[in-house]
Amino acid sequence: MSERKIRVLVAKPGLDGHDRGAKVVARALRDAGMEVIYTGLRQTPEMIAEAALQEDVDAVGLSILSGAHMALVPRVLELFKANKLEQVKLFVGGIIPDEDVPRLLEMGVIGVYGPGTVSDTYVKEIQQAVLGTA
Amino acid sequence: MELAQAVLAGERLALSRTLTQVENDTPEGRSALNALFPHAGHAHLVGVTGAPGTGKSSLVNQLARYYRQPPAGEKPKRVAVVAVDPTSPFSGGALLGDRIRMRDLAGDPGVFIRSMASRGSLGGIASATAGVVQVFDAAGFDIILIETVGVGQAEVDIASLAHTTLVVEAPGLGDDIQAIKAGILEIADVLVVNKADHPGVDSTERALRSMLELAHPVAHTIVHHGRLEISASTATDGTLWIPPIQRTIATDGQGIEELADAIARHRTHLLDGGGWQRIERIRLQSELDILLQEALITCWRSKVPEDIYLETIDQLIERRISPHQAVEKLVPCNNQ
């Protein structure tokens, strides 16, 4: 029997083409031994939820630079619920104003990782959230 | 058992969860495979292999689109895609990026895409790929497109899994000597020259064509456990399948209809010539052999005391016995 691999979907919703941050995160999670499904740019919340279902991922990371996070995140969470994917952990990166962070966490996002976040931080937090261990 | 029932009922979430259990080789995964096994065996398994960057994912995207929106008069087929990308030998992690090229398929309930990491397997597909394909087969998908990792010259495992193997080439990747080397090109049932709008496409096609002309017109044989088996592409009446060369431009869909025709012709050839059953037989036999090896080793290890095993290794290190002698000592049936 092989060990449990954490599977993570990294997606970039919205219309801007800046995916460097998403790629850095994808690479860091790969180097931490996770299987990262990278979907590329301009994903709709529907596409993200569908990919999460087909790939049976443990967590989904959204990179949002457009300022639309307060619309996109609730929509993605809503679709998770509609598809019985409530157990999937959602984390967010990109440009998120400080005052929005508590509101996102309240919605159920496990972490908000802006520019300058050390990769160890989100790797550990995702592992904890998925495996339920400290 | 419940998982398998839900898969047969067409529940996508149950299908996805089952694929994970099968991929992780858990007891749940094994019992689901047992329950699904009688329901599989109907899908057309199409392998897509080739060097990195030749456009395999884009081709899979176009083919799946074609099968979903076929020309008037044909029924759309349900399509599953299994896309394998390599696992890092250092971290054990993987970056699975094949979905990037398959965004056209989003939102279509008749398509299911699953990315897989190779998890240490070196043949171009993962060791669990056969199980994953079997789940899709039992779930009623008509066509299963299996995309291998970007391969070099000798990763040919896909040929023993798929009914039809596409080998994708692109202009500018090598001269005519590359084309007559053994390995990947030999397993092609259909040769695809993708990126046909790029310079050098004529010389690539010429090299492939001359490779096919150099091939002796004899039945391919596969040496399988010391037994010669005639390859599936040879019909029982001796009709040989000559791999067609199809030009495509996967970015805009040119040549896809012709490619789908070639795939369909190969399927007919297999069905009419008895090759379909031969592939089935070869695949199930090699699956059985692999499982037997695993089971025999596990069973044997449980019977031989650990200290005798370790003692033998010590003797090897001191060069008192050779590895062959050690095996003879530990597995007595070698002496009989």
Secondary structure layout:
The complex is a heterodimer of chains A (134) and B (336).
Chain A: E1 7-11, H1 20-31, E2 35-38, H2 45-55, E3 59-64, H3 69-82, E4 89-94, H4 101-107, E5 111-113, H5 119-131
Parallel strand pairs in A: 1-2, 1-3, 3-4, 4-5
Chain B: H1 2-8, H2 12-23, H3 27-36, E1 44-50, H4 56-68, E2 79-85, E3 94-96, E4 111-117, H5 129-138, E5 143-147, H6 158-161, E6 164-169, H7 176-180, E7 190-193, H8 201-214, E8 221-224, E9 227-230, E10 245-247, H9 256-273, H10 275-303, H11 306-317, H12 323-330
Parallel strand pairs in B: 1-5, 1-6, 2-4, 2-5, 6-7, 7-10
Antiparallel strand pairs in B: 8-9
Which features would summarize this protein structure in a list?
heterodimer; A: 134 residues; alpha/beta; Rossmann fold; 5-stranded parallel β-sheet; 5 strands; 43% helix; 18% strand; globular; B: 336 residues; 2 domains; 7-stranded parallel β-sheet; two-stranded antiparallel ribbon
How would you characterize the overall build of this protein?
- The complex is a heterodimer of chains A (134) and B (336).
- Chain A has helices at 20-31, 45-55, 69-82, 101-107, 119-131; strands at residues 7-11, 35-38, 59-64, 89-94, 111-113.
- Chain A has 134 residues and is α/β, with parallel strands linked by helices.
- Chain A has a single domain, classed as Cobalamin-binding domain (Rossmann fold), CATH 3.40.50.
- Chain A has a five-stranded parallel beta sheet, sandwiched between helices.
- In chain A, strand 3, helix 3 (69-82) and strand 4 (89-94) form a beta-alpha-beta unit.
- The model of chain A has no long low-confidence stretch (mean pLDDT 92).
- With 336 residues, chain B is of the alpha/beta class.
- Chain B has two domains: 40-291, Rossmann fold (3-Layer(aba) Sandwich); 304-334.
- Chain B contains twelve helices and ten strands.
- Chain B has helices spanning 2-8, 12-23, 27-36, 56-68, 129-138, 158-161, 176-180, 201-214, 256-273, 275-303, 306-317, 323-330, and strands spanning 44-50, 79-85, 94-96, 111-117, 143-147, 164-169, 190-193, 221-224, 227-230, 245-247.
- In chain B, the strands form two sheets. Chain B has a seven-stranded parallel beta sheet, with helices on both faces. In chain B, strands 8-9 form a two-stranded antiparallel ribbon.
- Chain A binds chain B through residues 1-2, 4-5, 7, 26-27, 29-40, 43-44, 46-47, 50-51, 53-56, 83-85, and chain B through 12-13, 16-17, 19-20, 24-26, 87-88, 91-97, 99-100, 103, 106-107, 112-115, 117, 119.
